[in-house]
Amino acid sequence: MSIKLYDLVGKDPTRPFSPHCWKVAMALAHKGLEFESVPTSFTRIKHVENGASPLIPVLSDRGKIVWDSFAIALYLEDRYPDRRTLFGGPAGVATSRFIERWSLVTLHPFLASAALMDIHDHLAPEDQEYFRKSREARFNKKLEEVPVGREAKVVAFRASLEPLRGMLGFQPFIGGESPLFCDYIVFGAFQWVRVVSPFRFLDEADPVGIWLQRCLDLHGGIARQVPAAA
C-alpha cells in the first residue's frame, strides 16, 4: 500500500487515539483512499521517516512526506482533485481554519485536562514516563490533580457547545448536507476522548452527541470500529 499514516497509539496498537491523526484518517476515507495505519507510540515519533516531524500525524504518499493534519488535508485536496472534496473550495478552507482554531481553544483544553489520567493509563509504561514528565510541566501540577472536578466542569463545557448545537439544528453536518474537513476537525477531538476515556463528555441525546454518532457511521464506520473506552 503506497499511503502510510503514522498513527498515535498506546499499549494497544489497535486503538489509535490522537485527535489530529483521526482528522487525517477521516480525510483519507472521505477521499476514498486506501492507506496503511502505522501504530506509533509517543517515544517512537522521533524515528518516524528519519525524524521528519516531532509530532504526528505524518503522512507518507509515494515518497512525499507531509506532517500537520491541516497541511495533510490541503495536500490531499491538491494531490487528488478528482476525489471527493474536503473543503468545497477556498471558502471551505477558510471556514475550516476558523473551526480548527475554535476547536483548539474551546474543545481541547477541557478534553485534554479531563481525560489526562485516562490517556496516561492508556499508554505503555515507557510512554507513561514521558507523558507524565511533559504534561506535569505543561499543567504545572501533578498529573492526578489535573482532572479533579471534571464532573462539575463538564456542565460548563457542554454549555460552550451551544454555537455548534444550534447550527446542527439547521443541517446534519458542519459542512452542510454532507461532511467536510471541518467536521473531521471537531470529530477528531471527541473521538480522542471516546477512545481513551469512559467519562461522559456528551449527552447522547444532545444534537452534538447525535452528530457524533452520525460521524461514527461515516465511511463504512471506520471510526466506530475502534470501540469506546469502557
Whole-Å distance between the termini?
A: 33 Å
Percentage of residues in DSSP E strands: 5-15%
Tally of individual helices: 10
Q: Looking across the biggest beta sheet, what order are the strands in?
A: 2-1-3-4
Mean pLDDT: 96
Question: Major beta sheet, specifics?
Answer: 4 strands, mixed
Number of strands: 4
User: Which bin fits the share of residues in helices?
Assistant: 40-55%
CATH architecture of the largest domain: Up-down Bundle
Protein name: Glutathione S-transferase family protein
Organism: Tianweitania sediminis
GO biological process, one term: glutathione metabolic process
GO molecular function, one term: glutathione transferase activity
How does this structure look, described?
It is built from 10 helices and 4 strands; from the N terminus they run E-H-E-E-E-H-H-H-H-H-H-H-H-H. It is of the alpha+beta class and 230 residues long. It has 2 domains: 3-79, Glutaredoxin, CATH 3.40.30; 90-221, Glutathione S-transferase Yfyf (Class Pi), Chain A, domain 2 (Up-down Bundle). It has helices spanning 19-30, 69-79, 90-114, 116-122, 125-139, 150-159, 162-167, 181-196, 207-216, 218-221; strands spanning 3-8, 36-40, 58-61, 64-67. It is 50% helix and 8% strand. The chain has a 4-stranded mixed beta sheet with strand order 2-1-3-4, with helices on one face. Strand 3 and strand 4 (64-67) form a beta hairpin. Helix 3 (90-114) packs parallel to helix 8 (181-196). The model has no long low-confidence stretch (mean pLDDT 96). The two termini are 33 Å apart. The longest helix is centred in the middle third of the chain and has 25 residues, at 90-114.
